[in-house]
Model the fold of this input.
Amino acid sequence: MSQVFQTLVLSQRAAGVAQITMSRPQVFNAFDEVMIGELDAAFTQLSQDDSVRVIVLAGEGKHFSAGADLQWMQRASEASVEWNTADARRFAGMLHRIATCSKPTVARVQGAALGGGVGLTCACDMAVVADNAGFAVSEAKFGILPAVIGPYVVNAVGKRNARYLALTTTRIDAATALSMGMVQRVTTLDTLDAEVDRVVAELVAGGPQAQIEIKQLMDQLSVAPVTEQVRELTASTIARVRGTDEAREGFAAFLGKRPARWIPQ
Done:
């Protein structure tokens, strides 16, 4: 974690656990071209680091992320279509980098998560949030739409809820976000870090290669009839994974009543 960033702080949260903290609290961690590039680079770096098992994405200060920096958006509104296309592709690439990260990713959310901040929350595998968190897909208020974050919001809450959030720009609280499936755990602000640590402990107890397989398989599944092709995919996947060294270690550890070797000490 030696790379130095302008808008992020990388730290070791626990053994095998890295934390990326967005560090622009003066603008509620709104992101611009620089932060987008740095988030992409940070997730790339940590995804390739074998010592990292889990990545936590956090925001410094009172709020997780206010989404897109308005000065950046104003520059975009005055730029050419070619500039906007390249810029939007970088944003889309960054969210894709988070969503396809080989390690489990956890969004640690407090305060506001607006626009692109919702996108960051939904691009992570799961979200643990304080009960003071509020979420709004707010782009329509500025005459634009949540295009790049849209697929991740749909994947998190379903198409009907995503349409409702985007069209109304309504702000929902943590309990509503939990009921929609946008977040997975809600706790008080004072116990937020303890709850994140509980989730992290559950994650590092799982086999790292198994978790990679889980993420890759889930990406190929959808809410749909279970076809012969899907049945064959799932059967061939488990048949292959059962014979791995990690699977043998997992069963041996369980039967031997000892921690598996992959759990950080």
